[in-house]
């Protein structure tokens, strides 16, 4: 999703400029390598974490939460995006193929769109559940969520196909508009959920019902992730005209996208850290990898209902 992968016409007009996998940043590769370095974390940590999330959701399919279809789709898309990172390195320094570049642009389009849209769906689901519980009870079915998932997949593939074809004027502004809209929605949505939970708790947060307090912490953690991963591109991209074209394409965009790309690792780790017990993994591994989460879980009362606490 870095600048070198954004919509380019460099190789569409072969009479004026030779094809370059760096998209004109051949001598200014620092921003691109920074983005790819963070993407390596997605390969080492993000792919296994997302596969584990998918396995857990499949294991719990008989007792699913309302957001599982969105979580599973998001984990699948993030795992697919992470798997393309080694191909990116090979194409940059070995193959330098236009065909591979087109496949990579499609995967970047998938990440551009699927992450913000599926997170927005999760925020919508939780917003309705907390703020409009009666309406949530009437709409608490798979049909509506499946239709929304199909719509997101359709928008994702349409955007990715357009990015792959290239040559569309001001195409990068589509992503800027999308990220601004989804970021605003997610912040407002999660802030409303936090306010509703806080207001319903009475005098202070310490007096909340245990499940509301847990929901409060979950939504707060998601809000922090949204700000960390999405605020950099939201803060930088609308000011494209203030940068020179080379600086924006080779430095500003790769750095902004790097924060968004690492969400492919952060999102599944946050989900796994909220589980009462992580299936398929020994408890010793969990304690070593996430001692803070293990300490919190150790304090959980024996009589608590694990099925209610296992996921958001």
Describe what you observe in this structure.
- There is one protein chain.
- This protein has helices spanning 30-59, 68-83, 85-95, 98-131, 133-138, 142-165, 172-200, 210-236, 245-261, 263-273, 283-289, 291-298, 306-309.
- Helix 1 (30-59) crosses helix 2 and helix 7 (172-200) packs antiparallel against helix 8 (210-236).
- The chain has 312 residues and is mainly alpha-helical.
- The two termini are 29 Å apart.
- It has a single domain (38-299), classed as Rhopdopsin 7-helix transmembrane proteins, CATH 1.20.1070.
- Mean pLDDT is 81; it is low at 6-16 and 300-312.
- It is built from 13 helices and no strands.
Short description:
The chain has helices spanning 30-59, 68-83, 85-95, 98-131, 133-138, 142-165, 172-200, 210-236, 245-261, 263-273, 283-289, 291-298, 306-309. It has 312 residues and is mainly α. Helix 2 packs antiparallel against helix 4 (98-131).
Please outline the helices and strands.
Blueprint: H1 30-59, H2 68-83, H3 85-95, H4 98-131, H5 133-138, H6 142-165, H7 172-200, H8 210-236, H9 245-261, H10 263-273, H11 283-289, H12 291-298, H13 306-309
Helix pairs in contact: 1-2, 1-3, 1-9, 1-10, 2-4, 2-10, 4-6, 4-7, 7-8, 8-9, 8-10, 11-12
């Amino acid at each position: 999703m870095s600048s070198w992968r954004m919509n380019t016409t460099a190789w569409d007009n072969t009479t004026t400029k030779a094809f370059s996998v760096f998209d004109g940043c051949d001598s200014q590769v620092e921003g691109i390598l920074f983005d790819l370095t963070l993407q390596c974390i997605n390969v080492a940590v993000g792919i296994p974490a997302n596969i584990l999330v998918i396995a857990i959701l499949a294991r719990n399919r008989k007792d699913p939460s309302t957001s599982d279809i969105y979580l599973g789709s998001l984990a699948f898309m993030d795992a697919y995006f992470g798997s393309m990172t080694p191909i990116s390195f090979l194409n940059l320094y070995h193959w330098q193929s236009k065909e591979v570049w087109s496949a990579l642009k499609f995967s970047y389009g998938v990440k551009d769109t699927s992450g913000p849209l599926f997170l927005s769906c999760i925020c919508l689901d939780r917003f309705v559940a907390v703020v409009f519980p009666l309406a949530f009870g009437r709409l608490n079915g798979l049909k509506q969520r499946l239709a929304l998932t199909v719509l997101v997949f359709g928008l994702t593939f349409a955007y990715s196909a357009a990015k792959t074809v290239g040559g569309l004027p001001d195409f990068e502004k589509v992503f800027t508009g999308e990220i601004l809209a989804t970021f605003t929605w997610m912040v407002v949505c999660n802030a409303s959920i936090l306010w509703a939970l806080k207001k319903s708790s009475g005098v202070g947060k310490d007096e909340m019902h245990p499940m509301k307090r847990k929901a409060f912490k979950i939504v707060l953690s998601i809000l922090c992730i949204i700000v960390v991963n999405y605020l950099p591109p939201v803060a930088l991209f609308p000011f494209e005209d203030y940068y020179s074209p080379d600086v924006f394409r080779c430095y500003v965009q790769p750095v902004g996208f790097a924060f968004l790309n690492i969400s492919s690792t952060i999102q599944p780790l946050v989900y796994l850290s909220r589980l009462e017990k992580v299936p398929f993994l020994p408890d010793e591994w969990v304690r070593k990898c996430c001692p803070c989460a293990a300490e919190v879980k150790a304090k959980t009362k024996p009589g608590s209902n694990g099925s209610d606490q296992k996921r958001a």
